[in-house]
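> tool_call: predict_assembly(chains=two)
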Amino acid sequence: MLLNQFLILAAILFCTGVYGVISRRNGVLVLMSIELILNSVNINLVAFSAMNDSISGQVFALFVIAVAAAEVGVGLAIVLAIFRNYRTVDIDEVDLMKG
Amino acid sequence: MGFTILAEVARNADADVLVAQNVAFGIIAAIMIFSAIRVVTTSNVVHAAAFLVMVLAGAAAQFILLGAEFVAVTQVMVYIGAIVVLFLFGIMLTRAPMQGTEKFTRDNWKVGALTSVVMLAVLVFTLVDGFGEDKLPADLMPTDTRVLSDAIFSTYLVPFEVISVLLLSALIGAIVIARKD
């Protein structure tokens, strides 16, 4: 197996996730796209770990999974708070700071 | 003579394993890419969560292919077992009253598509230029979970403790943010 086939698969997933973050309006769907991005990074880490016969990549992949769990928890809490205040999860409506 | 034939057979068996690995990679990768594109294009939130499960399971299969069995099992337990369930709860709790009529994709999605395609082109060019024909080791053995846990609890002990504190603070933060006052 080539190293590049895993890296290019991860690149495709990463760009799909970036497209989702840019183009989706629903807050939950944006969080799902962020999961795609984090997952593609995990594939990269594990592929390099196999390539270099080193354990560090797998350890960092586990750390990324833990951080992703924390991120989803806080992110969904924020989406719920937005929904309670605005009665919608459309992030185009959340423009209080005129960003 | 007999030894050469045996060596030849062994080399053929190795080649068969490599071909099988590549075929498995291709099938799983195709499923993952299709599902990922459906996650960001489908107009049904629950379907998006289901396709996300396909992507995450495919990633776990790729980890098995790379010999990282503990990471694969953790991926299935944490991502598919916990995070997707959390997403489904989020979908249920934020279901807008006017369901079915809302648009999930922004009007400027073409700009987003252009951005991601350009970024993909740059990334693929860099990867092909940088790693070219680099091969993974042919005798890829599954990583011993004992070695992995030894590394976590010795070399990476401080990051491990930091991540525990991070999870605790995220837990408290999520409760504080989502609580009704």
